[in-house]
Amino acid sequence: MNDLYRRGLEGQNLELIVTDGCPGLAAAIQTVYPRALHQRCWVHKMRNILEKVRRRDHDQVKADAQAIYQAHDRKQAQAAFRRFRSSWQRHYPGMVRQLARDLPELLSFFSFSRHLCRKLRTTNIIERCFVEVRRRIGGPWSASSTSRVWTGSSTPFFKDSTWNGKTAPSGFLHKQLDVTVIILFLI
C-alpha cells in the first residue's frame, strides 16, 4: 500500500477499498488510506463461515448469512445479523463471534447507492476480469506475484460495452462504477 501511495495513488477521491479479508491488508488500508471505507468480500467471508459448520447445518447457515448482505439497507442487515446470532451462537460461538467482529467492514457497501451494492460487496467483479485477462493472454500468472491491483475511476457506465461482440465482463469495472474504487487481492 505504501508503494502505491508513493507511486502517486494518493487517494484523495478514494471512497472504498474492497479486499478478501487479509488482516495485513486491512491494517495497511487504515494506515495509508484512512479516509477510505474498507469492504470485506462477502464471497470470501461466506467460504470462511461455511468451513466452520457441520454439513447438516450448511444450507440454513448459508441462507441466514445471505439474509444479512441481501438486506435492503444497513439497519435491516444488522437485524438479520441479530437473528443469525440468536440462531447460531450456541452451536458455533467462534464463527458468530468472528462474523460480529467483521460485520462493520462487511456492511460498508451500504454507504453507497443501492444500484452499486451488489458489485461492491465482493471482489468478484475484478476477479472475473482477471479470469478473462488470463484466458486472453494464455498461461497462468506468475506464482511469485504477491498482488494484483485494479483501479476504477468515476466514469459513466456504457450498457453497450462489448468485448469481441460479447458483453464485457461485468461491464468493465472502470465503466461500471460511479465512485472511485480500488480492489486488491492476494494471489
Low-confidence stretches: 141-187
Write the element-wise H/E pattern from the N-terminal end onward: HEHEHHHHHHEEEHE
Q: Which whole number gives the mean pLDDT?
A: 75
- Integer count of domains: 2
Q: How would you classify the helix and strand content by structural class?
A: alpha/beta
Which shape, going by the Cα principal axes?
globular
Helix content: 40-55%
What's the Cα radius of gyration?
18 Å
Largest sheet: 4 strands, mixed
**CA distance, first residue to last residue:** 16 Å
Strand content: 5-15%
Task: Walk across the major sheet and give the strand order.
Answer: 2-1-6-3
Q: What's the helix count?
A: 9
E-strand count: 6
Which short descriptors sum up this protein?
two-stranded antiparallel ribbon; 6 strands; disordered C terminus; 187 residues; single chain; 49% helix; 9 helices; 4-stranded mixed β-sheet; alpha/beta
Sequence-ordered SSE layout with sheet pairings:
Layout lengths: L1 H5 L9 E4 L3 H10 L4 E4 L1 H10 L6 H12 L4 H15 L4 H14 L7 H7 L3 H14 L9 E6 L9 E2 L2 E2 L5 H4 L4 E6 L1
Parallel strand pairs: 1-2, 1-6
Antiparallel strand pairs: 3-6, 4-5
Helix pairs in contact: 3-4, 4-5
